[in-house]
Structures are given as structure tokens and as C-alpha cells.
Amino acid sequence: MGTVLLAAPRGYCAGVERAVEAVERALAKHGAPVYVRKQIVHNLHVVRDLEAKGAIFVDEVTEVPEGAVAVLSAHGSPPQVYADAGSRGLELIDATCPLVTKVHVEARRFAADGKTIVLIGHAGHEEVEGTSGQAPARTVLVQDVEDARRVELDDHDLAYLTQTTLSVDETGEIVDVLRERYPELQGPPREDICYATQNRQDAVKAIAPRADVVIVIGSKNSSNSNRLAEVAHELGTPAYLVDDDAEVEEAWLEGAATVGLTSGASAPDHLVTRMLDFLAARGFDEVEQMAVAEEGVRFSLPAGVRQLPVRPA
Fold it and tell me: Which positions are catalytic?
């Protein structure tokens, strides 16, 4: 008989709930198809489910037929996307997470103040592209501690911003290195790493020391899910990132008495239920929930989908 240590909080954050509901409401209001720029959230199951309901995912709004309904993903978009949508007459529903929008506002303000912005994040990630797009001429990307040690900044009127889904600990190390080299570096008014990212990492820190192995449910392109597996690894516990129970290898469970289980902020909870059933069938039938925080954050829905039309009876 084995035990599952179930992390809490886990799964959907308020920004993901808002974005997924925005697409579902757009489909209910307008009918299929509704176009979505990029993956609405970084989860394979969510994308497949919405595709089955009539969503069509595109890389750019320039691929969307003129006048159609388009939803922007939770990760945020650069200003050019809004301009392109306007020129095509699209009915735009902006599902950008409000916490990402906050970072965009900070970027524009720092740029307007003449500062060079050091953006801490991962190259190619949609959120980073959206944030750097707010002030591309004034933004320098730093990805890790090595980048922080190497980067040469001529301007000494500096500020930093971060991707919202980073490792809290690693980001702290990067900022420390930058501040040592550039003591005048100014930070955002409030931390950019979002509450959900912080809470899910704290929950993994609570379960990993007691677990023989940690399973993180999330897609490979999900930044916050990858960070959860990394946090467990750094604490010395083997950790695996999987989309669902079908990807779990039996060898990972051999000799284990305790399995830690969590899910990234874009992973739906039914995948956790499936995983618990999978683990119970292999003898891990005791579940102990370890809660490190309560989450009551809710965001209002984007304009355009807050009210649904009343259909005649």
C-alpha cells in the first residue's frame, strides 16, 4: 500500500480559468468557428477539447478571415497583433491574463521614463514576446544566471521585469547577480511572478522532501509546469512532467512508497482525478492533501463575452 501526497494549490489559476471560459463563451455566443491566436493556454488537452467544440488555433491574426471573431491567448500579445486585428476588422476578445497585462503596463511606463528594461524570461515564450513587444528598442532579455553575469548594459537607468511563470528561487538569484553588477537596477512596484506560480512551487517544496517520486501533470510547453518539476529535482526528488496518466512509466513507481502529485496552472483537474485512479490501481490508494495556501482570486471575463444573449425558450 502506497501514499499519494497531493499538492494544493494545483491546477487552474484564475487567468487560465478566465481564458478558457472566454473561448467557450465566444463559441456559445457566436457559434463555430472562433479563431484563437496561439494556444489559449499551454495545455494539450485544453486545446484539443476547444478544437472539438469549434475553436480554430492560428499562429497570427493575419490568418483569420476578415470580420471573424478572434480570441487572444492568456500569455499576452505585442501591440502589432492589435493593429493587425483592427486592420482586418476582427471582433477581438482579449483573454490576456490581467497579471500579464500588469507587466505590459510596467514595461510601457519604464520605457516612457527612458529606462532600459532587463526582461527576465525564456526566449521564444509567447509571454516574453508579448512583453518585449511593448518596448522592443528598450528591452534586453536575460534568461538565466549566466546571462545575468555576461550581459553588458551601457545605460545605467535600468529596471527589470520578469515573465510571470518563472522559478521564484532562480529569478531571485538572477536579480541578485544583476543588482551586484548594476546597483541602480530598479524593480517593478510589485513582484511580476504571479501568485499561482509562487503557490504551486511552494506546494511542491512541501511534498517533494516526503516523496520518492513527483509527478507533475502539464504540457511540455508549459513554463510553470516545467518549473514545478525543476523545483522537485532541486530538492533531490526524481520528478516527471506528463500530459496525463498514459505517459507514466511503470519503472518510475518501482520501489516507491510515496508519490507526490501536482499539476500546472493550465492543467484541468479531471487529469488529476484520472492520475489518482491510475495510481490507486497500482497500490497508491491513500491520498494525503498538503495545502500551503488558499486561493480565492477571480478575474472578470474579457469584454465581449461577459454577457451571453438570452435565447428564446
Answer: 127
